[in-house]
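Dock xanthosine-5'-monophosphate; give full complex structure.
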Amino acid sequence: MTQHDRLLIVDFGSQVTQLIARRLRELNVYCEIHPYQNVTDAFLQDFAPRAIVFSGGPDSVTRDGSPRPPKSVYDMGVPILGICYGQQVMMQDLGGRVEAGHGTAEFGRAWVTPAENRLDLLSGWFLDGTGREQVWMSHGDHVSAIAPGFEVYGTSPGAPFAITADVSRRFYAVQFHPEVHHTPNGRTLYENFVREAGFQGDWTMDAYREEAVQRIRDQIGDKKVICALSGGVDSSVAAALIHEAVGDQLTCVFVDHGLLRLNEAEEVVGMFRDHMNLHVIHAQEQELFLGELEGVSDPETKRKIIGRLFIEVFQKYADGIEGAEFLAQGTLYPDVIESVSFSGGPSVTIKSHHNVGGLPEKMGLKLVEPLRELFKDEVRALGRELGLPDSFIGRHPFPGPGLAIRCPGEITREKLEILRKADAVFIDQIRRHGLYDDIWQAFVAILPVRTVGVMGDGRTYDFACALRAVTSVDGMTADYYPFSHDFLGETATRIINEVKGINRCTYDITSKPPGTIEWE
Ligand SMILES: Nc1ncnc2c1ncn2[C@@H]1O[C@H](COP(=O)(O)OP(=O)(O)OP(=O)(O)O)[C@@H](O)[C@H]1O
Ligand SMILES: O=c1[nH]c(=O)c2[nH+]cn([C@@H]3O[C@H](COP(=O)(O)O)[C@@H](O)[C@H]3O)c2[nH]1
Ligand SMILES: NC(=O)CC[C@H](N)C(=O)O
Ligand SMILES: [Mg+2]
């Protein structure tokens, strides 16, 4: 099997370490993030990176016991790029000096100007005629003396050594963050760095597809595998990939809990069964879920009931599949990184997110996770390679508990019916206005209150609903989408005219935080 050139990102705990990986993956470079504690001499030998990046970090190298890489990293003969804390660590390790404070802190936008010497790492920089380049800084400490062998190639007001390098050893150290959006030419810097390191850009979804298929065949052999299929991007791409690898040995279980959107079950099952020829069990469990949810209004109780039923249902169908030894999941790279996170600390549970994680232990199934190394946009690219239509790949995320968490308070079949219709009108409006792809997620929530209205000179006493549409990168933070008043007016009119049971429509303009995306 092909062994890709690998780049190692040593994580010192920066908030933006993942972005370094994103920038490199966009350049078709295979990279992995590892917390600095795990990067030992033995690890380095084994990983055999072609180049290394040191991330930023919250600590100060002036503090005794602050994070360090193993010394052997500097003897490997591979290029190293140190960013912010990474720069400071490199300078101190190699004989320079770092100082704290003294009015040199820079947070936010800054400008670097070039020194006299030229540096290949910066080719493509300083070309817009202003003689300087915008970068994003976030540091309190600064390098006050560079290490022997290094020279200065750029300075900023707060960082006299904003860009330094020892060209003969191919060590580069910068005070700013080239991975963030606010360093507009940061990508060029990474491009130059990986070219210098000799990467061939061999990480493409086309190549990945073939390798992944082979790996899945080796793992599964002639055994059977099952997959919980939601119709969301992750489980859909995982299923399509595994199907390509082992065909009929795969069975998908799609659970219809009665909390799906209008026509969703038909679309998902039709697509995978009729179009892609997958074996899909359409588990009709509406009565079970809606029955157990009857009279329940507390959000966490709802979520826990749904989580438990998902497992029970899945177990039931898995038991009926002879010889099933494997369970497929759509775990992505961000999930993997988060679970080994450097800075993980005690945090409060806001919501118990449902997913099928935790199943294998209970069921004695071995895991197949073919997307573990990929970011979401890579998963989308892979899905396209596998022939999934764009209408599936670009779908807004949909939560496992479905409409249950968009129906605050008690769930009734009547409310679900109304909600499904209103949601379909809203999404139709968004598509008609060509806004679907600009929005991360959009839906309607039906509110547990009836209000008075007047329609056709008669009195109405019906439910109110709230429209929700947000922009986001990863769902962790979000902003409400700035629809025009015309759009909102037209949509409210359509919902009230077309959906019996709703006579009032509001737009939710809360960002996250302090709100969350879903209403429960
Ligand atoms: N109705 C369902 N039937 C079967 N499995 C489900 C269902 N809903 C959720 N799951 C399982 O829970 C997992 C987690 O759901 P999640 O919404 O995070 O991912 P996804 O649906 O695959 O992708 P996306 O994030 O794009 O919605 C899914 O990958 C799927 O395995
Ligand atoms: O698979 C899921 N199971 C869940 O239990 C769940 N709860 C919220 N979400 C989705 O996560 C994102 C963030 O949502 P919140 O801001 O409401 O927490 C949004 O995209 C939500 O739709 C879920 N997804
Ligand atoms: N963003 C960073 O890496 C900051 C490094 C260090 N904590 C400083 O304040 O200078
Ligand atoms: Mg989903």
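Observed: The radius of gyration is 27 Å.
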